[in-house]
Amino acid sequence: MNKLLIIALTLITCGCTIPFLTEDQPYKLRVSWLGHAGYLLETTTSRVYINPYTVPVGALKADGILVSYSGADLCDVDNIQTLSKEDSSIISPPECSARLAMPNLIPMKANSTYNVGEFEIRTVPAYNINGTITKGEGFGLIITVNNTKLYYVGVSDIIPEMNNLRTTNFDVIMFPIAGGDLTMDLNESITFMKMMRSIHYLPMYYGGNTGTSLDVGRLLKSTATEQGLNVTLLSNEDLFIR
Predict the structure, then answer these.
(1) Which label site among 7, 51, 157, 178 has the fewest CB atoms less than 10 Å from its CB?
(2) Is 25 helix (H, G, I), strand (E, B) or coil?
(3) Dihedral of CA 154/158/162/165: which sign?
(4) In degrees rounded to 5, what are phi and psi of residue 85?
(5) What kind and span of H or E run contains 32?
(6) Which residues contact 14 (CB under 8 A, 6 or more apart)?
(7) How would you write 131-171 as a 3-class SS string?
(8) In the 8-state DSSP scheme, what is residue 185?
(9) Can you list the positions of beta strands (E) in the chain?
(10) Is 75 within 8 Å of 67 (Cβ atoms)?
């Protein structure tokens, strides 16, 4: 019999309150979308923010903050300062670091690896084919924590370097779908998902100030589902990896 069910039946018998474990169940990783290109990654001991676009009410301070591109919407000085504590590691491109002017700044460089608590972060290319964001200006991130592997695509089109990641089995891929001259559009997103391997696909860079609505995410999900792709929308919920 399921161990949780045995515990529940025992508690019912003795008239005790049942502390049913839902999102509070032990988990290896919790992924929260902060809107736009922002995410919070949490384990039971470490907390890393990526491009924090909003600061949720009651948000806890960061062990690390990753900024993948120096644009003001990703390198938000106020949000980064709000989430930082004295020993937070802030890993960002040089232009963003110059605006932050804070302690514990670590330069984000191409083909480099960083560690924040349990998190290992490796930079990979992210850029636009048309040259809007050129190679080396922004970064994608390969993040490994508790045997879980994530790919944060960053602000990018489908680029040749992604072929080097096609055989990697990811647990989570976070990718932009706003279209325009900075990111993939809906059709390109489908193509991208088909070329990669992941259990969960999390769209980002829609709604907010991207000129697209949250409906774009819903349309992507319905289109992807028809083709057997597992798109998860985090507009109203978090993703728990157990």
Answers:
(1) 7
(2) coil
(3) positive
(4) -120, 180
(5) strand 29-33
(6) none
(7) CCCCECCEEEEEEEECCEEEEECCCCCCCHHHHHHCCCCEE
(8) -
(9) 29-33, 39-42, 47-50, 64-66, 89-92, 105-107, 113-116, 119-126, 138-145, 148-152, 170-176, 198-204, 239-241
(10) yes
Pair of tokens at residue 146:
């508790």
Domains of the chain: 28-232 (3.60.15.10)
Structure tokens at 199: 């259990």
